[in-house]
Amino acid sequence: PALCREHALSPHSGAMRGIPGMNRNESDTNFSKMTLSRMPPGSNLGQIVEASNEVSHHSLTKVICTVGVKSRSVEELVALLEAGMNVARFDFSWGSMAYHQKTLENLRVAMKKTKILCATMLDTRGPEIGIQLAPDDISSFDAEAPKEPVVLEQGSRVTLTTDTRVKPSSDFLPVNNDLMPKFVRPGDDVFIGQYLFTGSESSSVYLKVDEVDEALGHIYCTCVNSAKLSGVLLTVQVSNKGDDLPTLCEWDVHVIKHWGVPNQIDFISLSFTPDAAAVEECRAIVREAGAPGMMIMAKVERLAALTKIDEIIAAADGVILSRGNLGIDVAPEKVFLCQKMVLYKCNVAGKPVVVTRVVDTMTDTPRPTRAEATDVANAVLDGADAIMLGAETLRGMFGPETVSTVRRISREAEKVFDHENHYQLQIPQSQLLNKGLLPQNEALASSAVRAASKVGAAMIVVFTRSGQTARLVSKYRPSVPIVSLVIPRIKQDSIRWTLQGEQAARQGLINRGVVPLLANPTNSDMTALLRVVFDHAKRNGTLKEGDQVVVIQKVGTTSVVKVVQMNF
Looking at the predicted structure, is the pLDDT value of residue 568 above 80? Predict the structure, then answer.
């Protein structure tokens, strides 16, 4: 069932077979009619092919941007926020804490200027192996960056060495991991590419290992293709090797404790997550450091992780499917199957799932390829909560345009997403996981989505303290925005008053359709709070006079789902 849903478009699936006895061409036609039937009333072919004039950040699917280098100043971050960035990702594979701190401070200024909420994510380095071509905090655009690339020719020999004092050249490439010669063997395949590589064969190289000398720390290789290695940092991956390396290195633990926790970062992206134990190890470190609310997103980027995907999903708060690294471990023809399987399992579990590496060419061009545009749409149809951008926003020349483009494509895909089919699939799966019954909060969430569909509601509003109910509503994929109205708690200790709830609000920014708002903690009048939501929605064009709104709230000790008609 994970790979045979309608949106898998498998020629052997029920969605493509149509009715018994129907041939392939008739079945394709039938599916096209089904898809077109989900277009808005009055749509025709001319309307379908016309460019959309909708506001880009009205898509339900979220966008995560890697920030720094070309997306670091207040002005650049303002542009990303206005284009539709929901989560800012700080990747500690490169850059010092001081470097990222400045970017974070600029992001906070940009949020105040735009009044746009943005969550933050710390991406760990993990067991990633690198080749440093420039000093710390030097980017490709700085004067101190290397002027000439490292040129490798097909068939030539190159030695990977653990001696980091050696200058990178076409003969020697120094790696930053002393353990590499211990697990690499002759015949292994090694991939080397620019940090956040875009897949261009001119800037990445595949090596075949010929010989390993553990005593000297040398790995002798032959180049499979010609390449010009440029940039300031190269990443190294050995296909299906290195799974025993520690998931969190000393640098990661230091960054989490001394940068992530003090800055109240919302998410940790746990690179190269191998199993549930690694997630629990990271969670223990975060709790010990005093940030139990920080969410752990397991980054699935190795074949070994796929074999333990069920336990990883159960342990983590969400999953990031890192297709760049995964594509090196997995045969190309199997990557799409891995994506559909992981996204399906996360959808059933109600965990947010993120897809990476979708519009790589927009690092250098203002428009994606046809294949990339289709890839974004398919990720949305497969059930992705968010799309993560890497090099496109970190060092790309068209960051805001990339965010806006991904938003527009996502919105078009959402128009033909089979919400009814998704809803019907979720209910029995959730019951199977709970002995035939739905938990109370999930029963409320699913009922709200069903009610919204039946009355044609324009919005669902959820009163919540932790954001959990709103995330459960997102699990059932309504076709309308989910306003998560977080009611903060005022907590007092012997020294000061603190407001709890801001992080819960921001964390909703990774779930499809969730629009978090933080309520005034001094106002407990539900009617007044609803009026604030309605006024806000009217100003941004989400609601108009006469629209129906579904509300989930508590009345005394009873949780209720009700339908309210908009009357301004």
Answer: no
Q: Which helix (H) or strand (E) is 551 found in, with range? A: strand 548-555
Non-local CB neighbours of 399 within 8 Å, separated by 6+ positions: 65, 70, 71, 76, 79, 80, 83, 389, 392, 393
Residue with the larger pLDDT of the pair 142 and 174: 174
pLDDT of residue 492: 67
Measured CA to CA, the distance from residue 471 to residue 501 in angstroms comes to 15
CA angle 442, 499, 252 (to 5 degrees): 80
Strands, E assignment, 44-194: 62-66, 87-91, 119-123, 129-132, 150-152, 157-161, 172-174, 189-194
Quote the CA–CA distance of 362 and 399 in Å, as a whole number.
8
Provide the token pair at 229: 């290695």
pLDDT tens for residues 271-296? Answer: 999 999 999 999 999 999 999 999 99
Pairing of strands 218-223, 227-229: unpaired
* pLDDT at position 67 over 90: yes
Q: Are the C-beta atoms of 5 and 15 separated by less than 8 Å?
A: yes
Beta strands in 303-420 (DSSP E): 318-321, 353-356, 386-389
Whole-angstrom distance, CA of residue 66 vs CA of residue 446? 33
Q: Residue 456: which of 340, 346, 355, 549 has the closest Cα?
A: 549
**Among candidate residues 337, 376, 371, the one with its CA nearest the CA of residue 354:** 376
Model confidence at 487, pLDDT cuts 50, 70, 90, reads confident
**Rounded alpha-carbon distances, angstroms, from residue 241 to 49, 191, 230:** 46, 12, 25
**pLDDT tens digits, 374-401:** 999 999 999 999 999 999 999 999 999 9
Please state, as a whole number, how many other Cβ atoms lie within 10 Å of the Cβ of residue 38.
Answer: 14
Cβ neighbours of residue 496 closer than 8 Å, sequence gap 6 or more: none
C-alpha distance from residue 451 to each of 307, 340, 423 (Å): 38, 28, 12
List CB contacts of 172: < 8 A, sequence separation 6 or more: 158, 159, 160, 161, 166
pLDDT digits (tens, 9 = 90+) for 439-482: 888 899 999 999 999 999 999 999 998 899 999 999 999 999 99
Alpha helices, DSSP H only, in 437-541? Answer: 440-455, 468-475, 502-507, 526-539
Q: Which two tokens stand for residue 539?
A: 């100003």
Check residue 128 and give left, alpha or beta (phi > 0: left; psi -120 to 50: alpha). Answer: beta
8 Å CB contact between 422 and 383: yes
Task: Read off the pLDDT of residues 126-169 as tens digits, 9 standing for 90 and up.
Answer: 999 999 999 888 888 888 888 899 999 999 999 999 999 999 99
pTM for this predicted structure? 0.88
**Sheet arrangement for strand 482-486:** 514-518, 482-486, 459-464, 548-555, 558-565
